[in-house]
Amino acid sequence: MNRLLIADLKRMWRQGLAIPLLLACGIALFVMSNSSVRSVENTRNRYYQQYRFADVFAGLVRAPQSLGNRIAEIPGVQRAQTRIVRDVLLDIDDMVEPASCRLVSIETDDPSPMNAVYLTRGSFPRDPDRSEVILSELFAEAHQLLPGDTIDCIMGGRKQTLRIVGVGLSPEYVYVVQPGLMLTDNRRYGVAWMPRRQMEAAFNMEGAFNYVSIQLQPHANTEEVIARLDRLTKPFGGTGAYAREDQESHLRVADEMSQMKTMAFVMPTIFLAVSGFLFNIVFTRLINQQTEQIATLRAFGYRPSEVGWHYVKMVLLLVGIGSAIGCLAGMRMSWWLTDAYIRFFRFPTIDYEFATRYAVIAILSAAAAAIAGTFAAIRKAVSLQPAVAMRPPAPRDYHGLWAERTGLSRWLSPVARMVVRRLETNRLSTTLSVLGMALGVAIVVLGSFFEDTIDYVVSFQFDKSQRQDVNLTFVETLSPSAVHDMQHLPGVSQVQPYRSAPVKLRHGRRTERLALMGLDEVPQLYRILDDQEKQVTFPVREGLTLSEKLAETLDVRTGDRVTVEVLDRRQFVKEMLVAKVFPNFSGPAAYLNRQQLHQLLQEGEQYSGAFLSVDPARLDQLYEEVKQTPTIAGVTDQSAARAAFDEAISESTSIMRVVYAVFSIGIALGVMYNCAIIILAERARDLATLRVMGFRRREVSMVLLSELAVITLLSLPIGLPIGYAFAYLTTVALDTDTQRFPLVIQPSTYAYATVIIVAGASLSALYVRRMLNSLDLVSVLKVKE
Amino acid sequence: MSTTKRGEKRTKVLFRATGVTKVYQMGEVEVHALRGVDLELYAGEFVVILGASGSGKSTLLNILGGLDVPTGGTVVFRDHRLTGADEDQLTEYRREHVGFVFQFYNLISSLTALENVALVADIAQNALAPREALRLVGLGERCDHYPAQLSGGEQQRVAIARAIGKRPDVLLCDEPTGALDVRTGVVVLEAISRINQELGTLTAVITHNAAIAAMADRVIHLSDGQISNIDTNDVRVQAKELVW
Ligand SMILES: Nc1ncnc2c1ncn2[C@@H]1O[C@H](COP(=O)(O)OP(=O)(O)OP(=O)(O)O)[C@@H](O)[C@H]1O
Ligand SMILES: [Mg+2]
Questions:
Q1: Is residue A209 assigned to a domain?
Q2: Structurally, how many domains does chain A consist of?
Q3: A6, A103, A121, B138: which has the highest count of C-beta atoms within 10 A?
Q4: Helix axes A697-733, A414-425, angle to 10 degrees
Q5: How would you class A361 by CB atoms within 10 Å of its CB: exposed for 0-12, middle for 13-18, buried for 19 or more?
Q6: DSSP assignment of A37-65
Q7: pLDDT at B1 over 70
Q8: Sign of the CA dihedral A242, A248, A249, A250?
Q9: CA of B222 to nearest chain A CA: how many angstroms apart?
Q10: The pLDDT value given to residue B5
Q11: Where is pLDDT greater, at A772 or B45?
């Protein structure tokens, strides 16, 4: 029997080649994505641990150092580290607009500080007489700054020169995002670490601090510590403590990684399922072709179980080959992908992990799918009476066929009739071919639709929603008259001031910290749109407007009441009604009519920032002016932000997109190839007969090609909707706490999938045609049907 | 016993094979299927090829029919040199001049008897009407039946009708009765013989059944890849009078 196995495999190697490759594609993708996700997660965890990323953070306005000691005594606190943190504007030679920078104090004499800086270049500051800093790596790279270079900084209204001595990374700022922005912009926002003593001097903070990080004892009650910490910091303008889970950088990293995880799970799972299913299809057809051999074996006296085992061995062998290729390729690719992710996140070291468990799951499920599919076919073959299986198939009645009933076949040449009737009578075979190709189409749609979705999100965000050219944030709130002056800044045609306040929203046990935006009733520049692109307005009304994501997080509905804790220095608490919840494509957000926000804060008109519409030609002038304005803390250029957003998104998803695109094409081609080969195998005898009769090669291949063409054409209208369904599943799975993707598939993507499939079918057809040309006519006909 | 007098049809040579050899290379082993065959076949004659299994009958027939090419020697059909012709030229040759019948009927199962025969009408210049071809083999009534609805002998007759549908110059039959019982075999042979006589098609039939030789004008004995003997029958026996 083993010799038969080898002979069988030799005979079917052409099909056999495509089968394990199909499976290998699914497994490789599954193993790759899961391994790289685990690797990135491990790497991050080790980074956090080695560089002592803090557990709890709190900001305040100014507190004496003695408060730090009291904080360290809170039960559950291992240690507390006080710091000075300030945002400043930088004037950088290679940029007209000012960049923003967060200055963070470091203790140069602490051997094991929390949130430690990992130096990638240069050294720590040593000279107490000079303003020396370590610059965050991404920012330094964006401006090609190296240790030894200097940058000009506007600190407390005075210009000062900072000397760069080192370039580094910190677990606290893996993701450096300017407050109020969606994504990193490494050119415009960075972090610089500066010795505490110099920070104290520059900001008049001697013996004081405005930031504290805490390391907890194992098993400490985080909420308890946060509550006590809040009580201690409140008198000093504390803005509310928060745990690592709410820390800006961690949140983004975690979010990015959870997205990676779902991406790594959903798409590869669909791929794996599809390749398992295709495996199944291919095997069913293969065994159907073997009926006679099975009958012969049975006639020789082999037991059904022996015959069954023969085929199970064949399946297992193919699964084994596919798994081996898939795992090896998956592992290799996961290293590559992990490297790319780690370059993106900037972790100092890499911990690779091979997701053994996932590999085992993938292999087992593939084997199960294959054996399950094969089992039915084998059982049918084995249960046949040998005599029945060796008899020619029962006469088919072609009269009831669609092609006959409609009279279509009367108009066809005998050759065309061959094609039509065969497609119609070999329903199982045709259906499986069509289904296989349809899945190929669907996979290509799945592999490339994300591009459209992202394009849509970008255009939604930047063309439709945020129509300002520049966003200014103020160091402290400004009065209407100061904002009025902004009308006269160069090139400014429209100003939309806003108020935003850091708040903590609470509903039952659920809380969320965010900036509550106070906007005009109908904002003109910075517009809020729902998922139907309808503008959301903020009339003076009885409460808050929440995004659906926030409402889900807080578990509230329109009409519910939430507690609003304002985290500003006047910290107070108020119950408010949720007046409206709207679905959108961004994260959690809360809005209020601006006047109402003023009332809530018990203040007159005070603005936190302004959105400007600016003549693009005069942007440079505007920036020159802004650099001289000490009341402005940050500037965001919308087109630059868009470019940065585009870059960040394409950087973080491009690898996956390429991988998916390549694999989907691979799977599609594999399916096409397999279909073509099977059709050739099923048709060899008829085609050889035609050749003997004197039909030319071109005429005979037309029979085969038109059959393939019909199958391809049938598969498109089925495959495209399946692709849509796959894409839908993916967006549903990607609907996380902070993000939701619209399902957008452009006609061009469908067209692309169609082109790929048609091209794949044509390639396979050409290949099969070549095989057909070298068909050994005599030996085909010598064998009994 | 009715007999047929041989006429003047022997005069025109259709095939001239000289020194034909065929060697199959099977890895290390060389199989000499034909070892120098010299043969002439004449227009309109009925030839039976006899020989032990493996003696090279099929090989010879396939070479004559343009399905295979010899390793050495030359084969000329009228003014076509079959040796040295490429695949496309051989296809054109088969298309215009040759009809094949095999042991396994090789009908297209999805086409009716009529449609199977009509296939050749697509490629032949001067084809018989498909119904006429079926009538010649005695199946005028079964036009609309699919192969699966016909007996083996009937299927073989459809195959013959298909082969002669294009009025070939030669009809080559490789064990046409090999899969049939005696009575059915006789019907098939009658059909072949009738074609030969009514259309004047040069007909070569391979068989293991020496009795069939009596039907032929000439009987070619092949042995171990060589022609050992050619008998000429003065009288042709009708198929139904054969003694098996
Ligand atoms: N494709 C092939 N490859 C290798 N050897 C072959 C091939 N075809 C035929 N042979 C060999 O050539 C020799 C002649 O074969 P051929 O088929 O002509 O015999 P035959 O006289 O028709 O026999 P039978 O009466 O059994 O059909 C045999 O020994 C056979 O094994
Ligand atoms: Mg033979």
A1: no
A2: 4
A3: A103
A4: 30
A5: middle
A6: HHHHHHHHHHHHHHTT--SEEEEEEEEEH
A7: no
A8: positive
A9: 20
A10: 43
A11: B45
**Residue A275, in any domain of the structure:** yes
> Does residue A110 belong to any structural domain of this protein?
yes
Residues with CB under 6 A from ligand 1: A 779; B 24, 26, 31, 33, 51, 53-59
What is the model's pLDDT at position A743?
87
Residue A461 is encoded by which pair of tokens?
């965000």
Q: How many CB atoms lie within 10 A of CB A685?
A: 17
Note down the domain range covering A532.
492-614
Q: How far is the CA of A706 from the centre of ligand 1 (A)?
A: 35
Same-domain pairing of A373 and A508: no
Residue A410 is predicted with a pLDDT of: 67
Interface membership of A759 toward B (CB under 8 Å): no
Atom in ligand 1 nearest the alpha carbon of residue B59:
18
The answer to whether A421 contacts chain B (CB < 8 Å) is yes
Is residue B106 within 8 angstroms of chain A, CB to CB? yes
**Interface contact flag, A693 B94, Cβ < 8 Å:** yes
pLDDT tens digit sequence for B137-166: 888 888 888 888 888 888 888 998 898 888
Domain co-membership, A458 together with A497 = no
What is the best residue among B55, B69, B212 to mutate for testing ligand 1's pocket, by most ligand atoms within 8 Å of CB?
Answer: B55
B72: three-class secondary structure by DSSP: strand
Question: Which residue lies with its CA nearest to atom 3 of ligand 1?
Answer: B24
Angle made by CA atoms B124, B130, B134, in degrees to the nearest 5: 130
Question: A-contacting residues of B 185-244, CB under 8 Å?
Answer: none
Which residue in B112, B118, B123 is closest to A695 by CB distance?
B123
| Cα A698 to Cα A3, A766, B127, distances in angstroms | 38, 11, 21
- Which residues are paired to A556 by β-bridges? none
Distance between A298 CA and the closest CA of chain B, angstroms: 24
Shared domain check, A139 and A197? yes
Structural tokens at position A619: 């942007």
CA of A600 to the centre of ligand 1 (A): 101
pLDDT mean by block of 10 residues, chain A; 785 residues: 70 68 83 88 92 93 92 93 90 78 89 90 87 92 91 80 93 78 71 92 90 93 91 87 88 78 76 76 72 74 78 83 90 86 81 86 83 74 62 54 65 79 77 84 85 85 86 83 84 90 87 87 88 87 86 90 80 85 84 90 87 89 80 78 74 71 77 77 83 87 85 91 91 76 88 87 84 76 62
Q: Which CATH architecture has domain B3-241?
A: 3-Layer(aba) Sandwich (3.40)
Is the same domain home to A762 and A655?
A: yes
Residues A585 and A720 in one domain: no
> Is residue A421 assigned to a domain?
no
So where are chain B's domains?
3-241
A380 and A287 co-located in one domain:
yes
Q: Is A413 on the interface with B (CB under 8 A)?
A: yes
Q: For residue A162, which amino acid is it? A: L
Burial class (CB in 10 A: 0-12, 13-18, 19+), B156: buried
* Residue B63, pLDDT score: 92
Please say which residue of A148, A178, A204 terminates a domain: A204
Q: CA of B56 to nearest chain A CA: how many angstroms apart? A: 14
What is each CA distance from B217 to B6, B185, B193, B202, in whole angstroms? 8, 19, 11, 11
Query: Both A368 and A259 in a single domain?
Result: yes
CA distance A161 to A192: 13
Structure tokens given for A171: 């677990």
- Strand, helix or coil at B101? strand
Mean pLDDT of B207-220: 85
- Give the predicted TM-score (pTM) of the model: 0.74
Pair A325, A430 in one domain: no
A777 touches chain B (CB under 8 A): yes
End-to-end CA distance of chain B: give it in Å, rounded: 16
